[in-house]
Amino acid sequence: MAKTLFDKIWDAHVVAPVNGGSEVLYIDRQFIHEVTSPQAFDGLAKRGLPVLRPEKTVATADHNVPTANQHLPIKEALSRFQVDKLTENCEKFGVQLYGLGHAYHGIVHVIGPELGITKPGMTIVCGDSHTSTHGAFGCIAFGIGTSQVEQVLASQCLVLKRPKRMRITIDGELSPGVLSKDIILYIISKLTASGGTGHFVEYAGSAIRALSMEARMTVCNMSIEMGARGGMIAPDEKTFEYVKGKKFAPTGAAYEEALAHWKTLYTDEDAVFDTEYHYNAEDIEPMLTYGTNPGMGIKISEQIPMVAKVDNPTTYKKSLDYMGLKEGESLLGKEVNYVFIGSCTNSRIEDLRLVANYVSGKQKADNVYAMIVPGSKLVEDQVKAEGLDKIFRAAGFDFREPGCSACLGMNEDKVPKGEYCVSTSNRNFEGRQGPGARTILASPLMAAATAINGKIVDVRKNLN
């Protein structure tokens, strides 16, 4: 019987069926951070349970950490407590921690792939919704709640119902200045923020195959933003070459054995999906969000939709009021005072190389504060090795230390109330980047162009 890639991996990890249609699924790897793990460890302690397989869990601190002076004690009390608690719990339960100051420290969804911990065919979970990032390697990877974090720590398994399967195929070639971030923002604008609910998405087609591994991670990262359980891309030669030689990747005969298995991870030709969509890459332009969920997105050449044309006009108008925008308005020429380049969506070395190439020899606008936050110490080290940090600083950008930073208002890097921020992160909810902050999601190139011009421009007209 023909199977989807998702079903091949899921079936290989089913431990046992459960009454009611659920299944016990074995989890190959769990990533944890300081926000969703304290209660899980407390639950284990109260029941007198150990972490069943501590070698299958990797921890890092990312959400609450400052991105400047990381060698100093954390100033904010709650953030300091959470990071200290993670350190304490990892020591107590024997879990590997890549904390502040460690050579492998970084955002949880950046360090897994770059260290070779993430490998094709795995089941991966984390108490973080953007765990779907790892699906770029042909993994079933998804976010879980704190009680489920505890379940995995205690049993290395979860009881789950199998989601529906969706395939989104994108064929053709992207135009210059259009990136993988634009692909996923375009898809979400078409399907809405709830269009993938109940599904696990496989991305396919020539435009997806043409993407680098880091670009594929950006696409999978935001699968959750259309309500999907996760997203994945079938592994290919690009995947195998990316993993090969990484710190924790198999070597020698073990690599060859793993490779033979990885090459079986694809959707069979006659496999059937519950839902399918097809799009043309040529139809995608640089994308921007204008509202308070990632589904509220438009092409740079389009205007904000009219209230009369939307399904829920009351909620829609409330969103526009929060953003200080009007129906029918174009975002071209909109003055913006804050730019954030970073997050688990767009903080990898390829993202930062693109930005450096664009801003080299230019100077940011006087009205803009622009920060660039690498996704990990390894990314930071690579940026410095290539001299990109000098390019950023010469252009007036604030190049900082690794962390989730201004993706969310859980640390010191907040956007002031009422200010617009063009951000390469993944969410534009009300207050996401700080109380009253107004977030416009975009690609790294669009963000860089905004910083240089002090307003939103069509980056395609300013490419080097």
Descriptive account of the structure:
It is a single chain. By secondary structure, the protein is of the alpha/beta class. It folds into 2 domains: 1-284, Aconitase, domain 3; 287-461, Aconitase, domain 3. It is built from 15 helices and 19 strands. The protein has helices at residues 5-13, 38-47, 77-93, 108-114, 146-155, 180-191, 206-209, 213-221, 237-243, 252-262, 313-323, 349-359, 377-385, 388-394, 444-453; strands spanning 14-17, 23-26, 29-32, 57-60, 96-98, 123-126, 140-143, 157-160, 164-171, 199-204, 230-232, 275-280, 287-289, 297-299, 338-341, 369-372, 398-399, 420-423, 438-441. β3 (29-32), α2 and β4 (57-60) form a beta-alpha-beta unit. α6 runs parallel beside α8 and α12 (349-359) crosses α14 (388-394). The protein is globular and about 55 Å long. 52% of the residues are buried.
Task: Give me some keywords for this one.
alpha/beta, globular, five-stranded parallel beta sheet, 464 residues, Aconitase, domain 3, 17% strand
Shape: globular
CATH architecture label name of the largest domain: 2-Layer Sandwich
Q: CATH topology of the largest domain, which one?
A: Aconitase, domain 3
How many strand units?
Answer: 19
**Main structural class:** alpha/beta
CATH level-4 homologous superfamily of the largest domain: Aconitase, domain 3
Spatial strand sequence of the major β-sheet: 5-4-3-6-7
Distance between the termini: 51 Å
Beta-strand share of residues = 15-25%
| Radius of gyration over C-alpha positions, nearest whole angstrom | 21 Å
Poorly predicted parts:
none
